[in-house]
Amino acid sequence: MSLVRTETDRGITTLTLDSPANRNALSAPLVTELAEALTACAKDRAVRAVVLAHTGTTFSAGADLKAPPGPYAFVDLLRQIVELPKPVVGLVSGHARAGGLGLLGACDVVLAADGSDFALTEVRIGVAPAVISLTLLPKLEPRAAARYYLTGERFGVPEARAMGLVTAGADELPAVLDGLRTASPQGLREAKRLVTARVLAAFERDAEELVQLSASLFASAEAREGMTAFLERRDPAWRM
Fold first, then answer.
1. What's the Cα-to-Cα distance from 224 to each of 64, 142, 210, rounded to whole Å?
2. Where are the alpha helices (DSSP H) in 3-70?
3. Of 52, 138, 195, 197, which is most buried, counting CB atoms within 10 Å of its CB?
4. CA–CA gap between residue 108 and residue 117 (Å, rounded)
5. Which N-terminal residues, if any, form the signal peptide (predicted)?
6. pTM
7. Domain ranges of the chain
8. pLDDT digits (tens, 9 = 90+) for 15-66
């Protein structure tokens, strides 16, 4: 059963994360399928742009703690979205958590429906938003990033727009897609290179260090306690 559905309409390919049973968590199979679908979009000259959408009430709950992708595989996926020679529009209608925000950070435009919410919950299971910092920190307002990295609080669409995570409301999708269909393939490709340069510089500079940090954190005793507590639906030992 496919975890990523593909549909194309007038040059726009929609890739829909379709694993609602685990809230579209980033499992190794889902990451592999999404990477393969993006590769196909990059090669297809008829595809002008990509929309990254989801089924269910959650865009992505972050890493699948039962079947996580390797950190290098996830870094490669994020970089693939950033480097794709076609714009990628993230479309959220519901919740996005942890690694799911990393996917949104890699997108060129992010649209979110009213009532959607977001959270960087890594600190609550004993780790940190390490790898996803590659796509988030170049785009987020620093004070807001500090607050939500450190507290794991949920925040809504107004806060997400103010901090640079979300571009506009989901009702802007028709206008955005019309604009992308009007633009030339060469123009889109070269314009995207300009706006992604800072993000790609972060990959070149920091990717290896952040992968190693992520691996060490997930292997720690605190992370084992945090993940066990999460799966057992109880408070971790450090909760005060």
1. 14, 29, 19
2. 28-43
3. 52
4. 19
5. none
6. 0.96
7. 4-170
8. 999 999 999 999 999 999 999 999 999 999 999 999 999 999 999 999 998 8
